[in-house]
Amino acid sequence: MSVVTNTIRNGVDTDKMFATLNLIEAQPELARFQFRATNRWIDGSHNRSTIKDFYAAGGEDTTRSEGFQIDAGEPAILLGSDTGANPAEYLLHALAACLTTSIVYVAAARKVELTSVESTLTGDMDVRGALGVDDEPRNGFERIDVAFRVTGNAPEEKLREVVERARERSAVYDMVTHGVRVAVEVNAD
Q1: Phi, psi of 84, rounded to the nearest 5 degrees
Q2: pTM of the predicted model, to two decimals?
Q3: What is the mean pLDDT of the chain?
Q4: What angle do CA 31, 10, 169 make, to 5 degrees?
């Protein structure tokens, strides 16, 4: 008689997850990643980013056969034509997506089976700063609020612990709350 253990929890192969964590702990150089995006202006506020290639685990990743294309724009009230979400909305999406993925992974590691994870994010902004109308308001969000609704096979306290640990581990949450140095280079023809 053989015993079969299901290592898939919340769509995550926990055996592979723990093996990856153990490998990175043993070989820290494998933890160096470089993600990339290219962007091209199309017209007005419409521009398009392509995301495909990245460096991971000691080499260039070649698993993506095609890149992801993401269109951005502005709503009509900001002189756009709604060709895509605006960059601030993409930031909210990135934060929501990273926190959600972190919740799923933390829950899987802690043997919590999730039935749903939903979030609502709001970002408050006084656009006078970004528009150059007034130097007093900052150019970006003044605050971001995140509200999660999480259900699963664990008590409320355990689900709250999962969300808190996910917040502590979320890369995008870290970037948003602690900032990141951005170097801008210009080549003009």
Answers
A1: 170, 175
A2: 0.89
A3: 92
A4: 35
What's the confidence (pLDDT) of residue 178? 95
What is the distance between the alpha carbons of residues 35 and 47, in angstroms, rounded to a whole number?
A: 19
The confidence band for 148, taking pLDDT boundaries of 50, 70 and 90, is: very high
Give a three-class secondary structure readout of the chain. CCCCCCCEECCEEHHHHHHHHHHHHHCHHHHCCEECCEEEEEECCEEEEEECCEEECCEECCCCCCCEEEEECCCHHHCCCCCCCCHHHHHHHHHHHHHHHHHHHHHHHCCCCEEEEEEEEEEECCCHHHHCCCCCCCCCCCEEEEEEEEEECCCHHHHHHHHHHHHHHCHHHHHHHHCCCCCCCCCCC
Tokens of 121: 């994010």
CA angle, 108 then 114 then 89, to 5°:
95
Helix axes 14-26, 87-109, angle to 10 degrees: 100
Q: How confident is the model at residue 11 (pLDDT cuts 50, 70, 90)?
A: confident
Q: Are 182 and 166 in contact (CB under 8 A)?
A: no
